[in-house]
Structures are given as C-alpha cells and as structure tokens.
Design brief:
Heat Shock Protein 90; 5-stranded mixed sheet; 458 residues; 5-stranded antiparallel sheet; binds magnesium ion; Beta-Lactamase; binds adenosine-5'-triphosphate
C-alpha cells in the first residue's frame, strides 16, 4: 500500500482533531471574555449603588467618610473613583497607579441623564476604561471606573497558553492519526500483499492473514480467502475436466483416423463404405460428448434456457422408456414404467425426458439379462420424486459419491460404452430446475436413482 494513503488519512485525522480543538478554545475564550467583562461591570454597579445609598443617608460628608474608609481598606486599588460637587469641582479623585494614558476629559462633559456609562479607549495597548456616572442628588455626581487591563492580561495569557496547547494537540493528533491509520490499514495491506503475490506467481494458494476479530476488514479478508479457495477448487476441477475431455476425445478421434486410414489403404469399395459408416459413428460419439459437456456447463452456470411448464411425468417417462424398449428386450431385461397420470411436475419436458433417458440408459446398460428396470413416481408435500430402480450390479458405497462427477466411470462400466457424462448431466439439469438427485444402491442387488422436482401448481 502506498504510504501516502496512511499519511493522508493520518493528516486528515490530525487536522479534524485540531479544528475541533481550535473551535472549542475559541468558544471558551469568547465565553471567558464575556464573563470577565460582565464581572467588572457588576463591580462598578455595586460600588455605585453603595455610594449612592451612603450619600442619601449621610450626605456628602458621609460619602467622603465611606470613600476614605474604602481607600484605607484597599478597595480602590483597581478602581477609578471621582466625586464632583454642585460647583463642578472635583471633591475626590483616585486612580490606580500606572494607569495613566486614558483621556479623562470626556468625564467632565455635562450629563444628559442621571445615570450614564462611558467607555474610554486607550489605543496604544487596546485596553478600555469603563466608567459609570451617576447623579446622586444635590448636584453631586459620582463616577466609578475600571480598566480592562487585568482581564486583558488574563485573556492574553489564555491565548498564549491555548496556542501552546494547540501546537501540542496538533502534534499528538497527527502522531495518533498516523499510528491509528497505520494499524487500522494493516488488514488492507495484508490483502494487497496476498493479491500481489497471486498476480506475481499465478498461484492461488496464497491466503490473506486474518486475526479472527470478525471486524469488517478482517471479515473481508476471510471472504477473500473463501473466494480464493473456491477459485482454486474450480481451477483444479477445470484443469482435471479438460485433461479428461482431451483424453476421452482422443480415443474416438484416433479410432476415427485409423478406420479412415484402413479404408483408404484397402481400396476395396465395400471396405471403404464400412469404414465411412464406422467413422460416422465415431464422429457422432465425439459430437454427443461435446454436446453433453456444453449442456452440463450451461446447466451449471445457469445459462440453460428452460421452457418451464406443467409436465406430465408419465408422458415423458413413457417416451424415454420407448427409446430403450428394443435394447432392453434384446438384452432380456424387463423395462416397465408405472406412473400415475395425475402426477405433474414444474419443468421443461425435453430436458426431463433427457434426464429420465440417461437414467434408464444406465439401468438397462448395467443390468444383466433376466433383470428388471422399473420407473416410478410419488407426489408428496408439493414435490414429486421419480425413481429408476434396477436389479443390476449395484455400486460400492465408496464409489457412490463420485457417480455424479464429470467423466467418472465405475469398474463395472469399463466394458460398456460411455464417457461418464450421463449422470453429471442428470444432476446439472435437475438442479437447474431447482430439484435434487439421490442414489441408493446395494452391491449385487441393484440401484435406485431418484430425482425430486417441484410439483406443478394446479
Ligand atoms: N444403474 C447403474 N448401476 C450400476 N452402476 C451405475 C449405474 N448408473 C451409473 N453407474 C455407474 O456410474 C458411472 C457414471 O455413470 P454415467 O451415466 O455418468 O456415465 P456412463 O454411463 O459410464 O457414460 P455415459 O452416460 O456418458 O454414456 C457409470 O460408469 C457406472 O459405473
Ligand atoms: Mg450413462
């Protein structure tokens, strides 16, 4: 995996983390600034109220006493206090040390109302002085003010600390983001390595390393492994089938060649005719094998076109039996079909006839003289089971699972003609119909091949 992806994800992660941290501090900063300003304002309000009350009780003298007492107690350390009497003479003035620089002349302006608030800016350092002015009676005016110095310092400190914290956060977020994405992308890297190794070597036995945690990426890894397993099986199957097909076509084709050659060499017209007939027969066999292979692969891949409808099982069974009646009679095998005419299945009549014909062909072919072959059917629970029962040699238990495999031929059949595709075709067609196949056999007694299909809807 390109490191750029992990880096990009890590940076994105770090950046989004940082943006939220910045938003949070800006929000906190604004709230803090507002709270501090409100607090300063409240101090001024309460001082004004306190002096107003004192003046109303004890007049200018009482007020002066209170102010002097406050000053003694250090209450004016951070306050501007000014008292102006009726003759606009400043009776009292105090200002914290080191405050200078505010232009206080505006405080001398005549009042429009009994209570007013004034803010005086001090451009060089950006601080402001907020002054509350109140006419408290008898022409006396009291003014209490507070500069934003202290809270400005506090906020500046907050800003500086926030910046440091931000930088640290950014570092931690970026590092954490990198580590997290690197660890999080590990399953994808494993997947990528596996696919790369398969592409490089062409071997499908590589597997993605999974941890078994069942998280989505791990699950993806095991799914890919399952898929690789399937592909491997399919490839092996295809390779095997191809080998078998090549092998099985070679025999008739060689015979074909030999027959044609012998006929040509002999020059005898009768022998030529015989040779041609023989060659035709071999060509027919090759053709049948190829058709069967194509049909099987069509049925297995789901591309076989089925003309589905209600099919009378008795009719198709009778037609299939008729195909082998002569052969059975010649061989001395009793071939019978006994199916209730009411039994109907949902299927394609041509394909179902082909299925039954293959089963009957096998039964007749492998059952020795004096035996029987019976075709029966039974309807139950919306499904129909048709069976072809014979009294042939039967199949050994260990061979049973393989009879449905392509090109499989049992020992008993070595002497009989065939390629081993009949039962594969039966299974593929029945499964394409949504049905199932089964076989039950007792060696030396006989076999029952059966297929279950959905019953036709009435
Ligand atoms: N009724 C049966 N009794 C005993 N063995 C059977 C019977 N039907 C099938 N078999 C066994 O199963 C094998 C596979 O059957 P399948 O019909 O697929 O091939 P085949 O009959 O040999 O050739 P093909 O059908 O392609 O001409 C047979 O070779 C035979 O060994
Ligand atoms: Mg067969």
């Amino acid at each position: 995996m390109r490191p750029a992806l992990a880096l990009r994800l890590g940076l994105w992660y770090g950046a989004s983390f940082l943006v939220s941290a910045i938003a949070l501090s800006v929000f906190t900063y604004v709230l803090l600034a507002r709270a501090l300003a409100a607090q300063d304002h409240n101090v001024l309000e309460s001082m004004l109220a306190r002096y107003t009350a004192e003046f109303q009780r004890g007049g200018l003298v009482g007020l002066q006493h209170l102010i002097a007492a406050d000053e003694g107690e250090g209450r004016h350390e951070r306050l501007l206090v000014r008292v102006v009497d009726a003759r606009t003479e400043i009776v009292y003035f105090s200002e914290p040390p080191g405050w200078g620089g505010f232009d206080l002349s505006v405080l001398d302006r005549p009042l429009a109302r009994d209570s007013e608030w004034t803010t005086i800016a001090h451009p060089p350092d950006g601080s402001v002085l907020e002054v509350g002015t109140r006419r408290i009676g008898g022409g006396v005016t009291i003014q209490v003010g507070r500069s934003s110095h202290v809270r400005d310092d506090l906020l500046a400190n907050f800003r500086a600390r926030s910046l440091e914290v931000m930088l640290l956060t950014a570092l931690i977020a970026a590092a954490g983001g990198l580590v997290l994405t690197y660890v999080g992308l590990a399953p994808l890297r494993a997947l990528e390595n596996t696919v790369r190794s398969i592409l490089a070597t062409g071997r499908f036995d590589a597997r993605v390393a999974t941890t078994g945690t069942r998280d989505p990426l791990d699950e993806l890894g095991s799914l890919v492994n399952d898929m690789l397993g399937r592909i491997q099986t399919l490839l092996a199957g295809m390779r095997g089938a191809l080998d078998n097909v090549a092998h099985d076509l070679r025999t008739p084709l060689t015979r074909f060649r030999n027959v044609a050659e012998a006929a040509l060499v002999s020059g005898d017209p009768a022998a030529v005719r015989d040779g041609l007939a023989h060659a035709l027969e071999e060509a027919g066999r090759v053709n049948a094998t190829l058709t069967a292979l194509m049909d099987i692969s069509e049925a297995e891949t789901g591309t076989m076109r089925l003309a589905l409808g209600a099919v009378s099982l008795r009719e198709v069974a009778d037609e299939a039996v008729a195909l082998y009646a002569d052969e059975a009679e010649e061989k001395g095998v009793a071939l019978r079909s006994a199916i209730d005419p009411a039994v109907h299945v949902h299927g394609d009549p041509t394909r179902l006839r082909q299925v039954l014909a293959n089963l009957i062909e096998n039964a007749v072919k492998y059952t020795p003289a004096g035996g029987r072959v019976d075709v029966e059917a039974e309807a139950r629970d919306g499904a129909v089971t048709a069976s072809v029962r014979d009294t042939g040699p039967g199949i050994e238990a260990e061979d049973l699972p393989f009879v449905w495999d392509r090109l499989y031929r049992g020992d008993v059949s070595r002497s009989a003609r065939g390629v081993g595709l009949g039962l594969s075709l039966v299974k593929a067609i029945v499964e394409a119909h949504g049905g199932t196949v089964a076989v039950d056999s007792t060696p030396g007694r006989g076999s029952v091949f059966s297929l279950t299909l959905p019953a036709a809807r009435p």
